[in-house]
Design brief:
This protein has 224 residues and is mostly helical. It has a domain of 121 residues: Tetratricopeptide repeat domain (Serine Threonine Protein Phosphatase 5, Tetratricopeptide repeat, Alpha Horseshoe), CATH 1.25.40.10. The chain has 9 helices and no strands. Helix 5 runs antiparallel to helix 6 and helix 6 runs antiparallel to helix 7. The N and C termini lie far apart (147 Å). The N terminus is likely disordered.
Length: 224
């Protein structure tokens, strides 16, 4: 009977052990499943940020390329429109400007306007004379008086450009006057050093000029 009890009791003990073992294993598995994942390492975080920045940089590069192309198209279109506008203005100006029948009469009209201090109107007539193709005898005078008109309007650099064009003519009665006006323009701009140089050029090239005495007085004043 004792041996039978052991035989019969043994399965019970094994059964309880098996249940205990299975129960413990299940609890451990549940504990493992409920544990949160480990936080990402610093390297993983930096790598993720780097990848995001690379993606963003790639997108921005594409946008910049698109904008640059659009800008080039706009610049090209703008240049084309400016050319068309200039052509239209030239045609309109040619249509509105009456032909010059007598250049000498137009020249005298320009001088009358200049003496009345109507510099813009005078310059317009003088420019029309140049565009009409007047003789050299009148062309150098037109440049001189265009310089005077610009000087009267306080556009001194433009005035200097016109005065210097007078020296491109082999013969001109306006060279000494142009030289003193170049010096006066620099003086009006506040560049006394350059003005002094230009006054001295007049004395060197045109010592017999009626403006020589006035220039000497200006040089003396500049030396004080």
């Amino acid at each position: 009977m004792h041996s039978i009890y052991l035989f019969r009791g043994t399965p019970l003990i094994l059964l309880f052990g098996l249940i205990f073992f299975v129960g413990c294993g299940t609890t451990e598995e549940l504990e493992q499943e409920e544990m949160p994942p480990p936080p990402p390492s610093a390297t993983e975080i930096l790598q993720k940020e780097l990848n995001e920045l690379k993606t963003e940089n790639s997108v921005l590069k594409k946008q910049i390329t698109t904008l640059e192309q659009e800008n080039r198209n706009i610049v090209a279109r703008s240049a084309d429109l400016e050319t068309q506008l200039a052509d239209c203005n030239d045609k309109l100006k040619a249509a509105e400007t009456p032909p010059i029948r007598d250049p000498q009469v137009t020249y005298q009209q320009a001088l009358l306007l200049f003496n009345s201090r109507q510099y813009e109107q005078a310059a317009m007539l003088l420019q029309q004379l140049l565009e009409a193709g007047v003789s050299e005898r009148l062309e150098d005078n037109c440049h001189y008086w265009l310089g005077e008109c610009a000087y009267g309007s306080k556009r001194y650099r433009e005035a200097i450009d016109h005065f210097r064009k007078v020296f491109l003519f082999r013969i001109s009665e306006k060279k000494d006057e142009s030289q003193i006006m170049i010096a006066n323009s620099y003086y009006a701009m506040g560049n006394k050093i350059k003005a002094k140089e230009e006054y001295e050029i007049l004395l060197q090239k045109f010592p017999a000029s009626p403006y020589a005495k006035r220039v000497k007085e200006k040089l003396q004043a500049l030396s004080l």
